[in-house]
Automatic annotation (TrEMBL):
This is Amidophosphoribosyltransferase. Binds 1 Mg(2+) ion per subunit. Binds 1 [4Fe-4S] cluster per subunit. One of its GO terms (biological process) is 'de novo' IMP biosynthetic process. PANTHER family: AMIDOPHOSPHORIBOSYLTRANSFERASE. SUPFAM superfamilies: N-terminal nucleophile aminohydrolases (Ntn hydrolases) (SSF56235), PRTase-like (SSF53271). The active site is at C18. Residues 18-238 form the Glutamine amidotransferase type-2 domain. InterPro entries: GATase_2_dom, Ntn_hydrolases_N, PRTase-like, PRTase_dom, PurF, PurF_N. The lineage of its organism: Archaea, Methanobacteriati, Methanobacteriota, Stenosarchaea group, Halobacteria. It holds the Pfam family GATase_6. GO terms for molecular function: 4 iron, 4 sulfur cluster binding; amidophosphoribosyltransferase activity; magnesium ion binding. The gene is purF.
């Protein structure tokens, strides 16, 4: 992945940029389970999909642009021999929509083959790339995944697998959940802050690593647990189990709260919390903090649905009796990749995507629930749509705090100039979107709904202070950025 605050011009909301998976099976080809799990992770990246397998002698790979269903055909799956493998779905940053950045990334070197799938974004990739280039490593992309691959390959020339991964982890700084295949051994690594999710599942005949537990469900497997922040998990090649190595420990984690708010599937369990229930709890908190009695409460589909159901439930418990209603119908054939090159066309896109149901809107006071406001374009359109349809009042409630800063950890959010809340306060935004009232959820309510302290969450995009040392940005904790030039590689072994 490339450095990450770039914004593709045709998206209206934040975009997750990757999903990763890895499997080791006893006596069954890995390709098909990998393919199914990538389907389950399609929401995490729609621009390219890839699988690399190993049959004990050599790697086989197929990486292609497009959705999983378009990237593979039956013959591709048949060709991917071997009982272990890793996979990836990806959404690249603007300007790198080409196959050289698609993953898994593969490299062959003196002591074997490596394949890597990465979810997240390093903030010191350039420093390591410069050092390795100076040592003669040739790079084929500007992505940070290739930097990790080269660094790991170099360490594997001098150290065993576990020490090599530990050395690489001591050098890379930023967000990473990785599935790696070294020859036929599949590993999972999660960065010491646990920024992006990664979990372990058990199948009848093997083990699986995946960004989200929904991928494990798809394979009829059982979620074993999350990979811990700073942990390396090595799957046994015969599918009989896995070994765990806690390679780095930190006092606090920095889980991305937006995974629970928006990116992850509601049916996934991440860091012990079912995403759907977290969203319902966020909706309940929203009622507690800024509930308003209206005739109906309705979600912006699909992401606002769980929030709205929690909000409506809490309002009914409080005796307000705000009725939950589906007032906006989604055209499910307009995908997330729908291309909208100009602002004017982006505005029109809302009508293509969503249509109001007149009987639930006309003559009513409405609370409209969404998970976030990025630029404000969609919210403005939705408020206008409901008012055009006869809504008497439209009150917006947002299940997250205002987004005031970009994300450098692998989420395609927007630049500061594009973020409406980076430049305007809540009253100004309410006026801009022409809502009758507008309230966001507080950061403390988010922490409460996630059952975490603020110190264990990444809140960079809502505070402007990050858990990593990023050039030109403030940090929210003591952060040690690794020294790259001249560091003694073996010192921490
Ligand atoms: S900055 Fe925001 S979107 Fe990015 S990792 Fe942190 S919480 Fe998640």
């Amino acid at each position: 992945m490339t450095h990450g605050s770039g914004q593709s011009p045709h998206r209206s909301g934040p975009t997750e940029k990757c999903g990763v998976v890895g499997v080791a099976l006893d006596d069954r080809a890995a390709a098909r389970p990998l393919y199914y799990s990538l389907y389950a992770l399609q929401h995490r990246g729609q621009e390219s999909a890839g699988i690399v397998t190993h049959d004990g002698f050599q790697q086989h790979d197929h990486v292609s642009m497009g959705l999983v269903g378009d990237a593979f055909d039956e013959a591709d799956i048949e060709r991917l021999n071997g009982e272990s493998g890793i996979g990836h779905v990806r959404y690249p940053t603007a300007g790198s929509l080409d196959k050289s950045c698609a993953q898994p990334f593969t490299v062959s070197f003196k002591s074997g083959s490596l394949a890597l799938s990465h979810n997240g974004n390093l903030v010191n990739a350039d420093e390591i790339r410069d050092e390795l280039a100076g040592l003669g490593h040739a790079f084929t992309s500007d992505g940070d995944t290739e930097v990790i691959a080269h660094d790991l390959a170099r360490n594997l020339l001098e150290a065993d697998l576990v020490r090599a991964v530990k050395r690489t982890m001591s050098r890379i700084h930023g967000s990473y959940s990785l599935t790696i295949m070294h020859d036929e051994t599949v590993l999972g690594v999660r960065d010491p802050e646990g920024n992006r999710p990664l979990c372990i599942g058990e199948l009848e005949d093997g083990y699986v690593l995946a960004s989200e537990s929904a991928a494990i469900d798809t394979l009829d497997g059982d979620l074993v647990r999350d990979v811990e922040p700073g942990e390396l998990v090595v799957l046994h090649e015969d599918g009989s189990g896995f070994d765990s190595y806690q390679l780095v420990e930190r006092e606090n984690t920095a889980h991305c709260f937006f995974e629970h708010v928006y990116f992850a599937r509601p049916d996934s369990v991440i860091d012990d919390e079912l995403v759907y229930e977290v969203r319902r709890e966020l909706g309940r908190q929203l009622w507690d903090e800024s509930g308003i009695e209206t005739d109906v409460v309705m979600p912006v589909p699909d992401s606002g649905r769980a929030f709205a159901s929690g909000y409506a439930e809490a309002s009914q418990e409080a005796g307000a009796g705000t009725e939950f209603a589906e007032g906006l119908m989604k055209n499910r054939y307009v995908g997330r990749t729908f291309i909208m090159p100009t602002q004017d066309e982006r505005e029109r896109a809302v009508r293509l995507k969503l249509n109001p149901i007149k009987s639930t809107v006309e003559g009513k006071t409405v609370t409209l629930i969404d998970d976030s406001i990025v630029r404000g374009t969609t919210s403005t359109q939705l408020v206008a749509l409901l008012k055009d349809c006869g809504a008497e009042e439209v009150h917006m409630r947002i299940g997250a705090p205002p987004i005031v800063a970009p994300c450098y950890m692998g989420i395609d959010m927007a630049t500061r100039e594009e973020l409406i809340a980076a430049n305007q306060d809540v009253d100004d935004i309410r006026d801009a979107i022409e809502a009758d009232s507008l309230s966001y959820l507080s950061i403390d309510a988010v922490a409460k709904a996630l059952s975490r302290s603020r110190a264990d969450l990444c809140l960079g995009c809502v505070t402007g202070e990050y858990p990593y040392d990023i050039d030109g940005e403030a940090t929210d904790r003591e952060v040690e950025r690794p020294v790259i030039e001249g560091a003694d590689l073996a010192a921490d072994d």
